[in-house]
Design brief:
single chain; mainly beta; Immunoglobulin-like; 2 domains; five-stranded mixed beta sheet; four-stranded antiparallel beta sheet
Length: about 250
């Protein structure tokens, strides 16, 4: 698309709207190119146009050595994001001071070339065996097919849950007929005290596309460590019992 004849005064700002309407879950690339010339048609004077053109490739020089135009080039990456479904969050539940492993399946649609839908679903089941042939990573990188991370509602919740939660992508199943991909994650949760916090599992494909799935981590009250019985020595007499506490940290 080309738009010409836009006048911009000195120290004024030009807003350029960019509209993105993807029809498949893949990366789209474009460039916004802005070419500026003087309104009166004259060139900007330049004392050393040859040296300037060597370091600034965005200028357009005239035959007399002046600057006829200046260009700004802005690359644009369009990454489709699937709408988050109003589904029930996958719940990971565990007693405090215990550890639980749980398998979480997420459904990605629109990842197969030519697919046009972009819905998402989530399913929770028991742990499964690890598949070594899946090329994945935790965090974001352009060298792998899928990347994933857990996002939290605040930095405070992140600092609380990060040491307690581990997530690993175990398996990837692709169905070309239904144009879907199922990712199976293994989530480890080992809380130290009761809590209830929400999180979002964000999955991003290297070729483009983002999917988000709600998670809920619930830590219940821990079991009683022990029962201390104190027998009375008599009325108005003290009874004493001793027990040992061991600290697991410094």
């Amino acid at each position: 698309f080309y738009f010409t004849g836009i006048a911009l005064g000195p120290r004024r700002r030009l807003d350029i709207p960019v509209l993105f309407i993807p029809n498949t879950m893949k990366l789209y690339e474009a460039q916004v190119v802005i070419h500026v010339t003087r309104e009166n048609g004259k060139n900007w004077p330049c004392e050393d146009s040859i040296k300037l053109n060597k370091y600034l490739k965005s200028i357009t020089l005239a035959e007399n050595g002046g600057i006829r135009g200046i260009r700004w080039i802005y690359p644009v990456h369009g990454i489709p994001e699937a709408p988050q479904q109003k589904s029930v969050s996958a719940v990971v539940r565990c007693r405090a001071k215990h550890r639980v492993e749980q398998r979480v399946e997420v459904l990605l649609t629109g990842v197969v070339p030519g697919a046009g839908s972009n819905a998402a679903g989530v399913n929770v089941n028991k742990p499964a065996n690890k598949q070594d042939e899946v090329q994945v990573t935790s965090g974001f990188s352009t060298k792998v097919e899928f990347q994933y991370e857990l996002q939290y509602q605040s930095d405070k919740i992140k600092s609380q849950l990060d040491p307690l939660v581990g997530i690993h992508l175990m398996q990837k199943n692709q169905d070309a007929e239904s144009e879907t991909v199922t990712l199976i994650f293994n989530i480890v949760f080992s809380p130290r005290k009761p809590m209830r916090n929400a999180a979002t599992l964000v999955v991003q494909r290297a070729m483009g596309g983002i999917w988000k799935f709600p998670l809920l981590f619930i830590a219940m009250e821990p079991k009683v460590d022990d029962v201390i019985n104190i027998e009375a020595a008599g009325l108005n007499k003290e009874s004493v019992v001793g027990f040992r506490l061991t600290s697991q940290r410094r």
